[in-house]
Every structure is written in C-alpha cells, then in structure tokens.
Request: fold
Amino acid sequence: MKKLAVALVAVSALSLAACGGSDTSAKDTASPSPSTLTKAEYLKQADALCAGMNASIDKASQTLGDSPDAAALEAFTNDTVLPTTKKVISKIEALTPPAELKAQVDAMLTEVNAQIAKVEADWKYGMTPKAFTKANKMAMDLGLPACGS
Reply:
C-alpha cells in the first residue's frame, strides 16, 4: 500500500504538467507587455509552483503511514491532493505566458483539467498508469521537470 501513497504523490505532480513552457535557457525575443512574462520567467515561476506543490503533498503523505487503507487513500486524494493541485493550477492559470508558449500552455491546462475531473469522479483513476501521462509528457518535453515528474 505504500506504493499507492507514492502513486498519489506522483499523480499530484503529474497533474501539474500544465505548467507549460520550454527550454529555460532560451531567451524570449519578443517585447513582452508588462503583465506577460518572458519565457524564462514563466518557466521559472510555473516550475517553482509545481515544486512547492510536490513538496507539500509529499510532506502530507507522510501521515498515511506504510499501509494506508482505501478509505485513507481516498480521503488523502480528495482532501489533500485534489485541493492542493487545483490551487496550484489556478496560480499557473494566473501567470501570463509569452505568446510563443500560449498554445502549449492552453493545451496542457485543458488536458490537466480533464484529468482532474476524472479523478474527482473516481479517485482510483488517479492511480492508473494512464492518469496524467499525456500532461506529464507535455511538461517534460517543454522543460518543466517539477511539473512533469
């Protein structure tokens, strides 16, 4: 059962694959508006949000012990993983990515929100290998390790 608890932590990390972005070493060449972040700023801020979420959920998962039962895992998913993830998704949605990332960010946000809805409908879905796989890959491909891990 410890593996199930770890899987929940992973689900939370995967759900934030919506962080969006690409190579953090690349410079944004367009002149951003005051509220639009550069590529580097966006990637740094979004990935930092994911890292903080991952750490928070990991810490909270320590209370589950070595062999949590299904009820404890369900409660952890509904009371900790989902609210924490949704809060961070809202913060990421509030970031304004540069134009070059907007389509990718929008696609990932759409994907991650669809996956969250599936977990809300059935918490066990979050433990399946297919949960958040696409969103996770999108974040990793775009250079957001905390969001895609």
About this structure: The first helix runs from residue 2 to 15. Confidence is low (pLDDT under 50) at residues 1-32. The chain has one domain: 2-11+36-148. The two ends are 21 Å apart (CA to CA).
